[in-house]
């Protein structure tokens, strides 16, 4: 059976749903195809959904700062009806401990250009503002079985605090909100089906074939398949001119009870998100009583790269739970370490420089929004607009490879050079971690 549409988006995570919404808003007929049974059921569901601005590139900072304005006015962004349940942005702030290999100055020079408010705290101010936090310097991160792990602090740390950061409370609901908005603009969704072929003719994409045999004819196909994106690229026979590689990486986020009184010093009811690259963790509030603890890929930890993203177990392991939560307890002395692991695991789609690829490909009409590297949930509201700018420009005849397109942000007025996310870029400035 053959059907036709203007655009096929493969992947209904928060990125794919945002792209579907913005393309549908532009007047195009959009069909979204996803292997799962609903929006945000893949990697999105395991996201910690932190909204921060600490990227080592101006494009990354501008994207995150613009997206924060979208999250803050989420109902307006979606044009959602009054009764629709929505994901909520919690503006609790983000505090980044100042470490030598990713010093505060790496970010503040971009903050000054982008207009991101921030505060620089010395060690005394950090202890006064966050009394539950041990301000000791323990760098470099070590395995928790290392004899030096519990060595005394070598110094005390300051921090960079961005009061406008925070987190989104329900990442899967955020994806569903975007999907519902896209449907209001006419987008259709095909659940529990996979793409088995990318159709092409004369050097241009012509659509996709689904596993039940349906052929969806389309002049534009967008790969937003997350950790499954490499598989789709191979079907399309693209990627030969990419200068950055992509690999699936399994990661865990753990759920623990917050220390007694941890949030009491916060005026809005939540202590800030704490980014601790000194010990190799991040800590995010989860309501008033719990915390999420994730890792920042310290060099001492082996990374769980996958050949097939379907092989990634969704269940937390004892070893990773013990490692990450013990590190968190070193930073929060009042934190108790449970005997049984609790949390989630997901799979990142990681590029060599931990920076996404939002670009066209050598196959005309085939676009990619991939390599999100565990750090692009926050930018999802903007990514749909970036990809719409890209697709409209390239389909209109612009040579993006020769002269990169730019996107002007609605809320901040900043301009983002889309060449920063090119498949053919030189590796971007990066911390080599999920921080970007």
From TrEMBL:
Cellular component, GO, one term: cytoplasm
Record-annotated FAD dependent oxidoreductase domain positions: 6-389
Species of the source: Streptomyces coryli
UniProt lineage: Bacteria, Bacillati, Actinomycetota, Actinomycetes, Kitasatosporales
Any Pfam family: DAO
Record's protein name: FAD-binding oxidoreductase
């Amino acid at each position: 059976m053959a059907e036709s549409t203007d655009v096929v988006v493969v992947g209904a995570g928060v990125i794919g749903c945002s792209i579907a919404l913005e393309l549908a808003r532009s007047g195009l007929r959009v069909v979204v195809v996803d292997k799962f049974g609903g929006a945000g059921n893949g990697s999105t569901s395991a996201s910690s959904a932190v909204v921060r601005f600490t990227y080592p590139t101006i494009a990354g900072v501008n994207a995150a700062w613009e997206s924060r304005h979208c999250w803050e006015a989420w109902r307006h962004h979606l044009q959602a009806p009054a009764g629709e349940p929505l994901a909520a942005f919690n503006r609790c702030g983000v505090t980044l401990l100042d470490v030598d290999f990713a010093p505060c100055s790496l970010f503040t020079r971009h903050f000054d250009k982008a207009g991101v408010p921030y505060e620089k705290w010395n060690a005394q101010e950090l202890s006064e503002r966050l009394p539950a936090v041990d301000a000791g310097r323990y760098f470099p991160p070590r395995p928790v079985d290392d004899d030096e792990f519990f060595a005394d602090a070598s110094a005390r740390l300051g921090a960079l605090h961005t009061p406008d950061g925070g987190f989104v409370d329900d990442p899967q609901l955020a994806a569903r909100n975007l999907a519902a908005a896209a449907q209001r603009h006419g987008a259709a969704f095909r659940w529990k089906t996979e793409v088995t072929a990318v159709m092409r003719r004369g050097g241009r994409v012509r659509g996709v074939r689904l596993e039940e045999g349906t052929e969806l004819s389309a002049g534009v196909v967008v790969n937003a398949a997350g950790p499954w994106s490499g598989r789709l690229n191979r079907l399309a026979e693209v990627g030969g001119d990419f200068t950055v590689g992509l690999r699936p990486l399994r990661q865990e986020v753990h759920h623990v009870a917050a220390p007694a009184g941890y949030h009491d010093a916060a005026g809005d009811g939540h202590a800030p998100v704490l980014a601790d690259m000194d010990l190799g963790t991040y800590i995010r509030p989860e309501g008033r009583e719990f915390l999420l603890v994730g890792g920042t890929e310290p060099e001492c930890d082996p990374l769980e790269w996958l050949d097939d993203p379907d092989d990634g177990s969704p269940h937390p392991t004892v070893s990773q739970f013990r490692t990450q939560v013990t590190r968190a307890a070193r930073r929060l002395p009042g934190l108790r370490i449970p005997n049984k692991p609790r949390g989630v695991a997901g799979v990142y789609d990681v590029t060599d420089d931990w920076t996404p690829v939002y670009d066209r490909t050598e196959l005309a009409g085939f676009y990619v929004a991939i390599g999100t590297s565990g750090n692009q949930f926050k930018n999802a509201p903007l990514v749909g607009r970036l990809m719409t700018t890209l697709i409209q420009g390239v389909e209109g005849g612009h040579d993006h490879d020769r002269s990169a397109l730019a996107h002007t942000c609605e809320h901040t007025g900043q301009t983002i050079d889309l060449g920063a996310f090119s498949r053919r870029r030189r590796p971007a400035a990066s911390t080599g971690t999920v921080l970007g």
